[in-house]
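BUG: 3D viewer hangs when loading the predicted structure for this chain

Environment: internal workstation, default settings.
Expected: structure renders.
Actual: progress bar stalls at 90%.

Input used:
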Amino acid sequence: MRGGDEQQGAVFSYIGLEERVPKDHPLRRIRVMTEAALRGLDAEFEALYARGGRPSIAPEKLLRAQLLQVLYSVRSERQLMEQLDYNLLFRWFVGLNIDDPVWDVTVFTKNRERLIAGEVSRQLLLAVVEQARANNLLSEEHFTVDGTLIEAWASRRSFRQKQDPPSRGTGARGRKLLRDTHESSTDPEARLYKKCGAAAAVPSYLGHVLTENRNGLVVGAMVTQSGNAAEREAALQLLDGAKRTAASTLGADKSYQQEAFLGELRARGVRPHVAEYEPNPKWRNWLGEQERSDPGYAISQRRRKLVEKVFGWAKQDRVRQVKLRGRARVDWLFQLVAVAHNLLRMQKLIPAQ
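Structure tokens produced before the viewer hung:
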């Protein structure tokens, strides 16, 4: 018998959000790991907020909402709030009841600077990495580093000549470069840069990632201003902040094949597994014969593709071109993307309880 098409609105609902989310949904395991990481940041949150005054939106809710924005490639925070208003899955993950009103989109803008000042995204990344270490998912001996171009929220036409250019530039022998004499009126910290000769220079930043070679999890991430030496300098900084064994290896591509950089790795007790150029008089290779013949060298080069998977996932409408201005804001978002990537990988790697 054909049923009637009656559309009478129900007054009450007796099914909670917990029952509406499937038991095997990936967000369930991601939420458990997120909650554990946020509980470890409780002291940091207490230090960021005043003890008196009007209660604000909980920072845990803001971070869970922004993780959803990264995981589901939501284009803007305004669209995120629209989704949060009617998407029951989003409400459950963030921690809102069915009848709770969503907050105004300007809440993100007002609270972002506070969270950036407290380095919350970096602390959250470290907390997630510690969970991976507790589940024996990390290698503390073999790492890979690489950098990628992040397009800034600015145009080439926004670059203007500086009012007070420096007397000495940052180029070789004090030569003045474009970044010394011009800056963007939209995003002054963005620089015109290109990673290959065939591409056009665009206002950009450089995002750097340090991954371990067992499962390709991110153990360190940061954003710097664009520059030829930025990748090598960031690699050393990320390596210094990572937990590693006394004798570890670092895989990298040919752009890291530089004498001073390899010397810094050896001084830290790190064996360089850096890709080499074809023999030619223009580009010299600086690896020693013992480093070339190391049986782990070929393995490091094969595992090097894991870091490219991080960039490939992150640039799917996440950080290909950021909608934030300023290096600190872009760095905060980039580390949040690294957190989301790790959570997505870990929910597949950790056995279901």
